[in-house]
């Protein structure tokens, strides 16, 4: 009888534990009894729509009081895509390069809106002896990650000049790192070339005297390619269509606000980047960077295809991808899209 009582007690505790587990907050779906949505973005000016939506409470307003909105920042696209694939984040802004690379290898990622264009600038270290693009062969350059958006833009531009990286048999040496550290690395002579997203390009130019070798509007795909895109997983779109619709609405509100209120948007950007990186950007840095960026939630599908073709040609992608299901713009009204 005693053994039976112990057995029943164990069964009861196990059953209670299962019930407790079912009622507890999950890692990504619930918090304090509310639905939880996590938005990811990077601390650079191409990702200002996320910063503005966060500051203005647009996501929270659209998703309602029954949802807790959290934010997570990333230094590169690889970390962002890992977080999206594992469900650590539900949606967010990332460059098209990492999204395409992961999609081509089977990742469940979909583009649901554009966010920005432009913002990639190539700068040469002062006294590096680099006076034109022809001098870049054999030099050391840095980008946030191998095959990232900025890397593909840079290597595409130079390939037309017959200059390639060591990765594919050329002479350019490639390093990767956090763009916020590029100024220090240039001044220390660790790199010759910085392929930098804004606002770090403007900061490098103003702080170190580095020369712009390839302007934002001359680098490959500079004016047409979405520099950042809003993405989510196909599973999230299929299972939580209403949530995604609200996220896109909040995103569109943020883009409209940026275009209507650039000075206030700059203040929000400076504050958010300082909180995230510990670096306070000077207003003149942000002003210069802002002139090299456009904000829109439209997506140039032809530019994305051309970019992917180049990624394949540069051997960042093993197979030429089919993007039929990669871009899902059902949540965007083309009649009201920002231009």
Automatic annotation (TrEMBL):
Residues 1-20 form the signal peptide. Pfam families: NMT1_2 (PF13379). The keyword Cell cycle does not apply. InterPro entries: ABC_SsuA_sub-bd, NrtA/CpmA_ABC-bd_dom, Solute-binding_3/MltF_N. SMART domains: PBPb (SM00062). GO terms for molecular function: ATPase-coupled transmembrane transporter activity. CDD domains: PBP2_NrtA_CpmA_like. It is found in: Cell inner membrane; Periplasm. One of its GO terms (cellular component) is periplasmic space. Keywords: Cell inner membrane, Cell membrane, Lipoprotein, Membrane, Palmitate, Signal, Transport. Residues 36-268 form the Solute-binding protein family 3/N-terminal domain. It comes from the Bacteria. Coiled coil: none annotated. Belongs to the bacterial solute-binding protein SsuA/TauA family. PANTHER family: ALIPHATIC SULFONATES-BINDING PROTEIN-RELATED, TAURINE-BINDING PERIPLASMIC PROTEIN. This is Aliphatic sulfonate ABC transporter substrate-binding protein. It comes from Bacillus yapensis.
